[in-house]
Amino acid sequence: MNIDLTHQTALVTGATGELGRVMVRTLALCGANVVIHYLNNERVALDLQKEIVATGRKAMIVQADVTNLDSVMEMKRKIFENFDRVDIVVANAVIQYTWRHILDQPPEDYLGQFDSCVMQSVYLAKAFVPAMIECSRGRMIGINTECSMQSFETFSAYAAGKRGMDGIYRVLAREIGVHQITVNQIAPGWTISDKDRKNNTELQEAYENEVPLKRRGTDQEIANVVAFLASDLASFITGAYVPVCGGKVMPAI
């Protein structure tokens, strides 16, 4: 049984980031054409595009501010000049900031997380779901976090933004399920990426000791779940929050 995304087009926001790059490569490996979204890092986006095109898949890069509706709609316009449709949308972009205690966290950090988690999800839905409805098919995949199930110190802005995102995705799953569009979230733990491999920071014993599998996950393991949820193998899964964190968090029933 293989994951086959041939003839489908996938958009990954934040595609030049540590996890985003691996998602793009994995979706392309499964046969999808890819749209590589970036905000500032055009060089990495171009390099990634060349890499994907060399595999025989189609790829385009597109710059946009996913916290701005006009920018997202302009991104949509550019994409539809090159592709007939977008079958898979992966909301991976998020604003980076310094984590502090609530009393010290600047209010603008909360607004930034709301914009990049909640409003990005709303804008992507407004931009790309209508065409999915016309095709009676589509995949909306949001990258959440294990942190949204935790209440640890300094997590407040990030957890608040991702909890808000969770609400949008669950409601959206109910609203558009009738059109055979699935809406799911993936919740990575503290994931090993190329940055860790470069800096030799893969091992984090204090964290790993709290993980039932006693290790950190990898960027490829996150991308594998993205590919699965994007595929027909997951056609009857919607409204799910899927932790990919070795069991560090476990949603209750």
Automatic annotation (TrEMBL):
Keywords from the named record: Oxidoreductase
One Pfam family of this chain: adh_short_C2
InterPro entries with a match to the protein in the record: NAD(P)-bd_dom_sf (IPR036291), SDR_fam (IPR002347)
Oxidoreductase in keyword set: yes
Keyword Oxidoreductase included in the entry's annotation: yes
Molecular function in Gene Ontology: oxidoreductase activity
Classification via PANTHER family: OXIDOREDUCTASE, SHORT-CHAIN DEHYDROGENASE/REDUCTASE FAMILY (AFU_ORTHOLOGUE AFUA_5G02870), SHORT-CHAIN DEHYDROGENASE_REDUCTASE FAMILY PROTEIN
Family from the record: Belongs to the short-chain dehydrogenases/reductases (SDR) family.
Name of this chain's protein: SDR family oxidoreductase
